[in-house]
Amino acid sequence: MALSHPGVRISHFPGSYYLFNLSGGRRKIKVLLSDILVVRAIKNSHQDKVLYLKGDIMHEVRGYQFEHLIDITGFLIRVNKSHLVSPESINTVDEDNIILNGPAENGKPLYISLSRRYKKSFFKFFHYSGIADSAFIG
Questions:
Q1: Distance between CA 53 and CA 93 in Å, rounded?
Q2: Splitting the chain (138 residues) into consecutive groups of 10 residues, what average pLDDT does each group show?
Q3: What is the CA 57 to chain-centroid distance, rounded?
Q4: What is the rounded end-to-end Cα distance, in angstroms, of the chain?
Q5: pLDDT of residue 56
Q6: Are 122 and 80 in contact (CB under 8 A)?
């Protein structure tokens, strides 16, 4: 078991879990890393995030920068200054928006903006993953 602040990595293999610090206390929550679909920064907070997981589960965690979350998962992609997404959560890419899989809010698809700053690295991730950029351009 390898220790890593601010959480504890339980395993380095597929099916890895991580203990995240919950906001508002001293408790930790065990999360299967592959269950993370989207990470959103909490406004006016440098290190507090909301994890959106499979099964419509959401956790507010504290003490994490995006770079740390990208490092521990190995698959999250930064798409703008406020969001990381899992490739699994992406349905389509439309110009400057990412349309997510899953339930829609009020009958409308869930969108996250793809900023110019992160667009090149976003498509580079898919290119090196064996997925052609054109597969995501509508």
A1: 21
A2: 45 75 93 95 90 93 95 94 94 89 74 93 76 47
A3: 13
A4: 44
A5: 87
A6: no
